[in-house]
Every structure is written in C-alpha cells, then in structure tokens.
Specification:
14 helices; 9 strands; 50% helix; Rossmann fold; 338 residues; two-stranded antiparallel ribbon; alpha/beta; homodimer; 7-stranded parallel β-sheet
Chain lengths: 338, 338
C-alpha cells in the first residue's frame, strides 16, 4: 500500500519513485494508480508528434519554458514533459534526450521531465505512458506535454492520449510522398512547421495547406481553369462555425520565433474543447483506448500462464516444421488442444 | 474451401483475390493460408525500413528491377513487393504509392506489388502482412521485399518478418539526435545511405559509422588523445569471423547508382544466413512472433464476445466518471465481475 499523499502534494522524490514503479509495472505502482485515479482529469494533455528531424524536442522545450514564463500576467503553470521514444527499445537514447533538453529548464521546480524508452512491447509502452500521465495529472501538473518520436501507428496511438495534438513538420522533409500522411492529418489539431527559417518553408506550407483543404472540406478549395476557387461548404455554416479548423503555425524552436502565437493557438484549442463538449468526448475516447490497451496486454499475459513452457515449445516446433499453420495453431492453443 | 492450386502455380488473378481475402481477414483467407503454409519457407524475405524522406520506395523499386534484370547471367527472380504503411490508417496513400512505383515495373509478369494501409489495429496489420508474405512465398516468388514506412516500433516489428533487413538513411536527416536510433541499428543487417548525391553525405556516413562501431564491438574504434584507435576485439577472432558485420552502402535510387553493390551485399547476407544456421534461427523467431501477434489479436476479439455491449458500456461509464481506475477495471472485467 503506497501512501499517495506526497504524490498529491507534488513531492518530486515520491513522484519520481512512483514513475519508476509505473514504468516497471509493479503491483505497488498499479495500486497507487488506482488510488490516484479519482484525482485525475484536471490537466491539459498536449501531444506533440512528427517525423524525426523536425526538432520536436526543442519545440517541446520552448513550450514548457513559455508555460513557465507567461507574458500575459497569468501565474505560471506547472509543466510535465513525457518524452516517449518507441524507436529506442534497447539503449539510453532517452537519457541523452534528457540532458539535451534540460539546459533551459534545469532547476525549475515547476517542471518535471520524464523520458521513456520502450523496454518491452508497444502495448507495455502505451500502458506506462498512460500511467505516467495520470500520475502527473494527480500530482497537480496543469500542462502535460507528451512528445512522441516518429509518425507510425504507435505514435498516433500515444498521441491519442492527448486533448490537443500538435503535428510537427519541417522544410525539406516533404519531398517524399510518404513524409506527409493523411493518417497524421486526421489527428492534428494544430500544425507546426518548425525550422521555419530554413529554405523550402513555402513548399512545406503549400503542401500542408493543400492537405488541409482536402482533409477539411468546409474550407475546401480547388483549381478550375488554373484559378484557385473557394468551394461552398457542404456543411451548414452554423455547424461549421463550431468545428475546430486546424491551422498552420511557423516556429523556429532554436530562437523561440513563433512560440507565443503557438501557445495562443493551444489555449484557443483548449477553450474550444471546453465550450464544444469535445473535452468530455476526448476524455472518454482516451480512457476507453487506455482500458482496451490494458485488456489486450493483460489477456496475453494471463493466457501465457495457462500453458507450460514445454507444451508451448512443442507447439512452436510443429509450426517451425510447417506441420501446422500459425492461424490453425492459434485456434488449437485457444481451444486448449495442446 | 478455396482451391489453392491456382495460387501455387502463381496465377495472378487468383493470388490477387486471395490477398484481398487475407487483408479482410475472411475465413476463406485463413483456410487458404493454412493449406498454403506447408508450401512456404522458400522465399528470401528482405525488409526495407527507414524514416520518411529517405526514398525507400524508389530504392525498393530499383531493387525489384535489379532482381528482374540480373547482370550475372543468372535467371531473373520472381519478385513480390509488400509496401506496408502503418501511418496511413484512413485513406488512399497506398494507392498513390502504387502508381508512383509502377512506372518502371509495369507489365512485368514476374513482379507483383501490393500496398497495404492499416485499416484497423496495428496487430491486424502485422497479421495481414505476415499472411500476404506467406501467400507470395507459396506462390513461388523467390524474393519478397517488405517495405515499411517510418522507424517506429511498429515498423521494427514488421521488419522482423524479414531474413535480411535494410535500414535506409539519407543525408540531412541526421542532424536531429533522434534521427538515428539505437533500436533501428539492432535490426539492421545492411545500412543504406540513399540520396547519396546530396550534400551532407559524409556527415551521415560518419554518424552511421560511429553508431556501427558502438553497436558492433568487434570493430570498435575510439579516440585516444585525438587519434582514432582500433581496439582489440573482445570476441574471439574465429568467432568474430562468423558474425555478420553490417556495412554501409551508398545509393542514388533515382539514377540507380550503387544498386549492383547493394544487391551483391544482400546476396552475401543470404549466403551468410544459410551457412551460419542463422536462416533457421530467424525463421523460428519470425514464426514465433507471428504466432504471438495472432494470439494477442484473437484473445481480445474472443474476450470481447463474452460481454454484452450494455455491460461493457456500463463499465466504461464507471471509468469515465472516475469511480474506478482502468487497471482495476481490467481486473474486474477479466474476473467476469460485470
């Protein structure tokens, strides 16, 4: 039985220990999460995703700094950063990342940064990430930045944890037709072109704008006899007014250009979520996804305990020898025919 | 009951239909895969992975062309390409990909290209990919190129299907510390710097070489008083001689530069696998992974049928209301306490 009082009052050492428990999936960690759960649901979760090379880490760093030093006279927010790196299942990339990012924020007690590398399955990583976000939420961090590397399905799944998702691009990556993907667009609330001082920024913006117009028909435009035409929206105007329209923001994380406008856009999205009822809807989707990921992992772990190593190995052998196909093998295993 | 004879004799229309059955996870598709399974295990599976912007598709295209037009007097190999795009869960990126790549290979009956976008879960995609690779294998395609977009865990998992894995980099992506990841290195049998005619290729090669030296201690070098020193291997020389050493190949897929050397390296790796016994070991790992992915998906699908929509929804509500945490909820659900 873990005493959650120090966590709720935001004690760093207790929190740090709990995060390790959660990462290691210990019974104590799970029990603490159960106790902390009623205290969650206050934080604004901001996902930041995009391909390698877009400068996401520096951008997250800048955002954290901006929340700690607001220029609108509001009190600073407590900020947690969860940097998730599913591409690094083996070694200490996460540690290196920590050091690089700590320079600007070191020593600020209102900032807590946690990097996570995938140690086991992807499902395990999604579970730990959700748990760590809950711990930060219960500990009173008002803004939680969830940074994911890459643009695969795994990152999309982790980004779905967030209320507000930033998709980061950079000039020079967009020349491959695979660099900008429809799937990523579907999860973007805000598009960021970082490294916007680099050549090619106009091309990147044009490409993103084109994708936006395709993805969001209320502002669809098309070319007609060489002219760009604005199309009448097929959605009712009043209804359209209530829909969030992702827009493009240009930043240079290395010198801070564009960060204030980006912070404003994030705040506007948060207000939109609250006013439209989308906040509650996203919370539900988020919790359902978390529950189902957890179910999946728990089912396989429990099932595996029902069969001895020898029995399982014998089954694998018959597949290796191509006596039985994997699909048939799974059917037999689940019917306890081993 | 599907008649597998036309598949085994490589009839394109029958094969194409089967691939759709497999993608749609139909009982007919699964039954056909069970029947085809004893006929698999002949093909050389080559995984090609790397971040967006590295030009993987063009490279795969060139490799397919090279296998169709060998310059060593050997007969051409039948080539299948499976292009997996987990970042595109929603729309027709795969179709666009097909069109772009078909130019050079169109009309060649010895080439079969199949693009797959993720329609459902990632587990589903891994399952379909494994099934489609088996169908190509049974249909007599000797070389199967499995192309995966991005560099996330999902792509790593799919790349593990392969006997030989190529990790593709390109100049200009490596300035982010996240661009080259240890996790990706662990799966690389061959490293490719594509777009090697671009500025910065020396930096990319130096970075990759540095990572290689770290990852593969038998050729570890280090700096000592500013000089590069070769370190005596800690592994026995005879043993080291039998280990495969990933090396770096530079290509320009758009004009074909470097492709013959890359093809030679792939052939050498295949020979190494066969001579060292690694071929059998990799086959086993591959089949075990496939079986376990399948188990995971089947377990959750079956479990979900045991509980009514109303019961499940009521449980979700209690989580949404934060009356019960997700971990506790999963424990109760699996103990049938609903």
């Amino acid at each position: 039985m873990i005493d959650i009082t120090p966590i709720l009052s935001g004690e760093r050492l207790a929190l740090s220990r709990l995060l390790t428990q959660i990462e290691n999936d210990t019974p104590e960690g799970n029990e603490a999460l159960n106790q902390l759960f009623p205290h969650t649901g206050q934080a604004h979760l901001i996902g930041v995703t995009g391909a390698p090379g877009t400068g996401k880490s520096s951008l997250v760093n800048r955002l954290a700094y901006a929340y700690r030093h607001p220029d609108d006279g509001q009190p600073p927010k407590r900020v947690a950063v969860v940097a998730v790196d599913p591409t690094s299942p083996f070694t200490g990339g996460a540690v290196l990342g920590d050091r690089v990012r700590m320079k600007d924020l070191a020593g600020d007690p209102g900032v807590f940064i946690r990097s996570m590398a995938s140690r086991g399955s992807l499902g395990g990583l999604a579970k730990s990430t959700a748990g760590i976000v809950q711990a930060f939420d219960a500990a009173g961090f008002e803004t939680i930045l969830i940074e994911t590397v890459g643009a695969g399905q795994a990152e999309v799944d982790i980004a779905r944890l967030a209320h507000t998702t930033l998709v980061v691009e950079a000039p020079g990556l967009g020349d491959d037709i695979q660099a900008i993907k429809a799937g990523i667009f579907e999860i973007a609330d805000i598009l960021v072109i970082n490294k916007a001082d680099r050549p090619g920024v106009e091309n990147t913006e044009r490409a993103l704008r084109g994708m936006l117009n395709l993805a969001h028909p209320v502002r669809r435009v098309f070319q007609h006899h060489g002219q760009i035409m604005e199309v009448q929206p097929t959605v009712d105007q009043d209804e359209a007014a209530e829909l969030w329209q992702p827009d493009i923001y240009k930043t240079v994380a290395t010198d801070g250009s564009g960060i204030p406008d980006l912070v404003t856009a994030i705040t506007q999205h948060q207000a939109y979520l609250e006013n439209s009822g989308d906040w509650v809807r996203r919370e539900r989707t988020r919790l359902q996804t978390e529950l189902e990921n957890l179910l999946r992992e728990t089912l396989i772990t429990r099932w595996r305990k029902q069969i001895s190593d020898e029995q399982y190995q014998a089954f694998l052998e018959s597949v290796f020898e191509r006596q039985i196909g994997p699909i048939e093998a799974v059917n037999k295993l689940l019917e306890n025919k081993f």
